[in-house]
Amino acid sequence: MNKWSYKSSLLGLLALTTSLGSVAYAGEPPLPTDPVVTRSLESQDALPRTAFYSTPSDIATALPGALLKHESAANYDLPKGFTATRILYRSTDSHGQPVATSGVVVVPPGKAPEGGWPVIVWAHGTSGTAEMCAPSLMKDVYYGSLRVFDLASAGFVLVMTDYHGLGTDGPHQYMNKYAQVADIRNAVPAAHALMPELSQKWFVVGHSQGAYAALATAEAETKANDAGYLGAVSIAPAARPGMMNANISAVKKAGGPYMSWLAFAIKAQYPEFKPEDLLSKKGLKFYPEATGGACWLTGNALYYPYSAKELVRPDWNKNKYVKQFFAEQTVGYEKTLGPILLVAGGGDTTIPIRTLNSYYKDACHLGSDIKYLVVPNAEHGAAMVESMDTQISWLKSVLAGNTPASSCPKN
């Protein structure tokens, strides 16, 4: 359960509409800050992790994108008539090693259009770093309350990747563009192996961590040049992780679990890195549970009393592994392939709009094709909800062969 689905449940709402976007940033109920309460809430939304998620012993012989397992899943809270199938497929981590990645393929009701259902690979936002934090292990698939199934209702099959290490054997390589791009791109052939009748045409759509991964996928496609790839929708991406954290000493609000997850991510990329070189004693206090035994809501509750500044060492951003991670994981310094719809929340305090403005300026300068939409006053989750109709219109237009208008200034 993420913070937005918690809020909508608390309000007694069964589904989000565009009007609920205002609830996500104005007059919203407070998040629970008692870990006992949040553990209970996450448990209520959780599905059991079964042997399905175990990595096959012969994974090294499978090709990237190979479908390893699949099973029908009837325990998700889906719109009427939708069907879901869990998949396990072969992907690659950032070190080039074979890994198993899980996900869910969601199919809307009705007859497929001529040429087959077009595909959207859905890339979710931060859920946590523990195995239990896979969206496929949540009844609402983590984003059910944020209108994600509207994308399928619009005539697309959703291929919802968990990212490896969530659900499957870890570690999850959090905010690692190389790992997440591999999981996104390998989900496409896996879905076709499950449903050969799918169209070859596909998009990537993501929010937050997943929006960052969507931009990285668009960059990777300049080399991969997949003929079926049509473009990306990126909502509130963490495009400049270094920029977001550079002025952390000025952050006065609760720091949340992000610095623990950052330490976990750097450790997953560089095994010789020590989390204690980034985190303070207060930051390390809940590190084991936040990274291995809790998801977003509980992670936030654990660290709620502390400001971001309190959770890190004074010299944390001078560490060579931290600096290297930020340098390697930033997007916007390579040209992208295909059009991009970039969405920012005008009131987003999680991903400050200045970081998206920086990405947009650099990407436009490189010749990327970007339509930039700022949703006035919208917080992080509301940017997803309130832009949904625009997202769908943009996707359908590109699918129809139209060239969307770019916001980039003409040189």
UniProtKB/TrEMBL annotation:
<dbReference type="GO" id="GO:0016042">
    <property type="term" value="P:lipid catabolic process"/>
</dbReference>
<feature type="domain" description="AB hydrolase-1">
    <location>
        <begin position="120"/>
        <end position="387"/>
    </location>
</feature>
<feature type="signal peptide">
    <location>
        <begin position="1"/>
        <end position="26"/>
    </location>
</feature>
<dbReference type="InterPro" id="IPR029058">
    <property type="entry name" value="AB_hydrolase_fold"/>
</dbReference>
<protein>
    <submittedName>
        <fullName>Alpha/beta hydrolase</fullName>
    </submittedName>
</protein>
<dbReference type="InterPro" id="IPR005152">
    <property type="entry name" value="Lipase_secreted"/>
</dbReference>
<keyword id="KW-0732">Signal</keyword>
<dbReference type="InterPro" id="IPR000073">
    <property type="entry name" value="AB_hydrolase_1"/>
</dbReference>
<dbReference type="GO" id="GO:0004806">
    <property type="term" value="F:triacylglycerol lipase activity"/>
</dbReference>
<dbReference type="Pfam" id="PF12697">
    <property type="entry name" value="Abhydrolase_6"/>
</dbReference>
<keyword id="KW-0378">Hydrolase</keyword>
